[in-house]
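Rotation project, supervised by the postdoc (A.L.). Task for the rotation student: set up a whole-complex structure prediction and record inputs and outputs verbatim in this book. Inputs entered:
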Amino acid sequence: MTTVRCAVAIVGSGAGGGTVAQALAPLVADGKRVLVLERGPRFRDEDFTGRELEMAAALYADEGGFLTADGAMTLAFARGYGGSTIVYTGTSLIAPERVIRGWEVPGLDHADVERRSRKYSAENNVHLLEAERLNQNNRLFVEGATKAGFRAEQFPLNLRGCRGSSLCNLGCPNAAKLGTNRVQLPSAERQGVEVVTRAEVTRIEERRLHLVVSPRPAGGKGTDPEWAPGEYLVEADQVILAAGALGSPPLLLRSRLPGLPGGVGAGFTCHPAHILVAEHLRPIGNDVGHPKSFFVDRAAEEGYVLETCMYFPFITAKNLTGFGAPHSALMRAFPRLQMILVLACDKAVPGNRITVDRRGEPVVHYRFTPAVIDSMIRATRASARIFFAAGAVRVHAPSADPPLLEAWESDRVDQRIAARHFRTGTISISAAHLMGGCAMGHGAADSVTDAWGRVHGRPWLRVADASLFPDALEINPYLTIMALADRVAEGVLADQGAR
Amino acid sequence: MATFLAPSLRPRFRALAASFVPETAAAAPAEWAALEALVERTLAGRPAQLRRRLALFIRVLDLVARLRLGRGLAALDEARRAGFLERVAAAPVPLLRRGVWGLRTLVMLGWYTQPSVTRAIGYRADPAGWDARR
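Outputs recorded:
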């Protein structure tokens, strides 16, 4: 085993880790070593082919098929240089004031989160896509939402040079999406921060990390690891966990650090989602252009958000209810399908939590509360109205039986789409906004960290990812993760300056 | 590592696949090979217990079909097999529903990721985006 010394070790390189890495880069000029340890590989530009199968296998944990303990929901999260910022769509929203206030974290106020979010919005070229770049899938959403009485808002996006491949969720093949893999991490590396990929942290001890660096598998995408494959012990003055909600809490749990707050793993939320499709009579542009340009935010009023989306053939097939001829007929209509992603704003509840199995791997226990099911039903009804208002001839609603609603049934949406049809194992539900497990809060009795991400009772250990969220964010989370990570880095800089 | 699709299981799996995705009934040998290879590869990365459970689930489905309908999955005509699977997929027992969901998802993974299939359904996404449509 090789021992490496550093001032700061950052575990993970996504929205949190990448942000912290850049913010701490000035330490390097002061002669301090800063390491980023990323479990996944460093992909080369040519690795991003946009092909569903190979990209899902390369980018996502369990090839995108990570399931909750009861098998009822798929959780999507990426591993690689840039973490899940490789695979998001670049939607960049600032956390709502009411959400941050509702978290009730002493020392965390919305004005601070907003200020830092705006800083990273500017750094990542966040802007509204020009009208001529919007595809028909998005235009139909706006048209349908407006006719149905909903307010559609345009997503600010962190793009530069977008060619409209529609392949954001498979990693942009044109390097146009400004995730941490394109902005913060390269900046950090230019300033001397070292990023080690294919480096899995297996255990934490007091200011020490046990680490395994793996070789690139034969024929695998990405570069070779920066360090020789083998086992390492990293000794660090400060450790920052930024491995995401399914990375940081499991690492703490399997490490069994004595005296850790009991809330590690608790409070898991994820915005459970499913894809709705509707069939039009004519082809619509759904597989060209940015896929997620608009949304309807009903989080505060009805507990859901609707977003435009476009998914790839297998993901679409998987999300359609049922099988056989009706399913095939809908798949053959692919160029005529309009798509909406429905997200329920869940709440942190007892029992929904992350644990680890005997091997130390994450296990997610998640139960759909009546409130979440209610939100999904309302969201599905709203989507059906939007689809029909946009001219769809039939709508596929997983919470209807049979799931296909014809246009002549458009005035029976409330009767046809109902909670009694929401049955796990029949409906495909997935989530990509994985939050909680190391919640910020007042003290060790009710949380894991303070408002600056410092683990209670462990001044050398911080968390800087979505696991900090004490409850669901109710919007796409990456900009808020960056804002919180910026606070974490500020705390580290203050500590390092004081040493 | 033991394969999931043992020779005794393959005809039943293919019968299930034909019900889940009817186009597979007319699949070319190369398409079947690609589908099954992908299923094998996907399951190879999962716990052995999951592979065993799925294989057992297929055998149980086959047995129940024999007991209830007088024929195994591979010998049933398409309409009866589809009806049988729809009943299992709507069963009150979540485990049964999830079993069918898991198998159908595997078949769809093996089918709807094949380039010939995605072309056939009209999927045209291209890294060149808008430029590819001009």
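Student's summary: Residues 478-498 of chain A form the longest helix (21 residues).
Supervisor addendum: Residues 147 and 477 of chain A are 29 Å apart (CA to CA).
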